[in-house]
Specification:
73% of the residues lie in helices and 5% in strands. By secondary structure, it is mostly helical. Helix 2 runs antiparallel to helix 8 and helix 10 packs across helix 11. The longest helix has 56 residues.
Length: 412
């Protein structure tokens, strides 16, 4: 039986040809072994369905509540894994994209995958179609798609792209979980304090003043503080709003954002957590890309854009330029003191032995383990501290109140 084939050849060029085979599955496996990435494969008969034809419009109406759900990185990750699994089983790229579109968890995700399929039907490569929406699919995904189409190993590279997204998601979740608890605990302490000062203490003061006795010094201090807060409440609120506005302005400025990121890295405990996270993310990204065949320069340029910390991002960009000028990777990373020292030492070993992906992989695994330990210790340390601070605030109010009651009772 003769089949009509549309595929990307080993050089990355799109080509269309026909070939005889017993089954479509056997032909697809043969083409993959020859280095082709199959885009479409159909029996060469007039009655055969055309896999490049448009699918019926199954999208929900624009006013449907499901459109409120955004397309997340997890949607992209699951889509890439699905594409890799289907391509590995002999399904063509277009059929895989159509299936991902139909199984998408949200209409926005379905529309994004549908657009990729439309661009491939129009003659563009998979990498080019993804690059048009690089903010959604990610720089690494585009790079690995280019390598996969060029090498005929799209299944492997898409799996690695999904692995990178999973690693980045896990790192972000770990860091966020570490920092959210203390922020919530501080907010709770501030809220309790504000409620006591503005609502509870004034009522206690009215009650104590009715006793007609001199209040103890501790109680009087509490009353004076409550009076000052109530008298200057608007000024305090205005100052807080001004501080938040100034912080937003600083973050909108590139230089100011970098200074803020440098400051965060120098905070004793949380700074180490951020450094561990940046080191693990950079090492894992470099391992996945170099292992998949992305050049070192392209891997450095792409990894720089993945880092959230502006100072770390600038260090990697500077390392990219140094390598381009002929420096070794270890020497190029030497000024990047924001990363943990093991990173550049392992990079040096990887360059000498020719096992750079393995060196980056070991570095990533080690620092991911350290990050998990640091987050656990931070949680164990911050919880009793927040309990003590909140207890001191509430206890101070109770002690001051009962001291006043004892003074009133003694004067009676």
């Amino acid at each position: 039986m003769r089949f009509q084939i549309t595929a990307m050849d080993p050089r990355g060029s799109r080509t269309t040809f026909s070939r005889e085979a017993t089954t479509a599955e056997a032909l697809s496996a043969q083409l993959r072994a020859e280095g082709f990435v199959v885009v479409a494969l159909t029996p060469d008969t007039a009655a055969a369905p055309d896999p490049t034809a448009r699918e019926p419009d199954r999208t929900l109406p624009r006013y449907h509540p499901a459109w409120l759900k955004p397309m997340t990185n997890f949607d992209v990750e699951m889509g890439l894994r699905q594409i890799a699994s289907m391509i590995g089983s002999g399904v063509t790229l277009l059929f895989a994209l159509q299936t991902v579109q139909e199984q998408a968890a949200s209409p926005r995700a379905a529309r994004a995958w549908g657009r990729v399929a439309e661009k491939i039907r129009a003659g563009r490569s998979f990498a080019e179609a993804l690059a048009d929406d690089v903010k959604r699919f990610g720089e690494i995904t585009v790079r690995l798609a280019e390598v996969g189409e060029r090498s005929g190993e799209l299944q492997r590279t898409m799996t690695r792209a999904a692995d990178q997204m999973e690693a980045r998601r896990n790192l972000r979740t770990t860091v966020v979980n570490a920092l959210v608890y203390p922020v919530l605990a501080v907010a709770l302490a501030i809220g309790v304090s504000a409620y006591l000062v503005t609502m509870v203490i004034p009522k206690i003061a009215d009650f104590l003043k009715s006793g007609g006795v001199a209040l103890p010094g501790l109680t009087q201090l509490l009353m004076d503080f409550a009076d000052w807060v109530n008298a200057n409440g608007l000024a305090i609120l205005a100052g807080a709003v001004a501080a938040v506005a100034a912080w937003i302005v600083v973050r909108l400025n590139a230089h100011g954002r970098e200074l803020e990121d440098v400051f965060l890295l120098k905070i004793p405990v949380t700074g180490r957590i951020l450094r561990l996270s940046a080191t693990a993310l950079f090492a894992r990204s470099m391992q996945i890309m170099t292992e998949s065949g992305v050049t070192l320069l392209d891997a450095l340029a792409t990894s720089a854009r993945l880092l959230g910390n502006r100072r770390c991002r600038r260090r990697v960009a500077a390392a990219h330029d140094a390598v381009m000028r002929g420096a070794s990777l270890e020497r190029a990373l030497a000024p990047a003191r924001e990363f943990l020292p093991m990173l550049r030492r392992m990079a040096a070993v990887g360059e000498v032995t020719g096992a750079l992906p393995e060196s980056f992989g070991e570095t990533a695994r080690f620092h991911e383990m350290l990050l998990a330990i640091a987050v656990k210790r931070f949680g164990m340390m911050i919880e009793p501290v927040m309990i003590v601070i909140t207890g001191i605030i509430v206890g101070f109010v109770y002690v001051a109140f009962f001291m006043a009651l004892f003074a009133i009772a003694g004067a009676a």
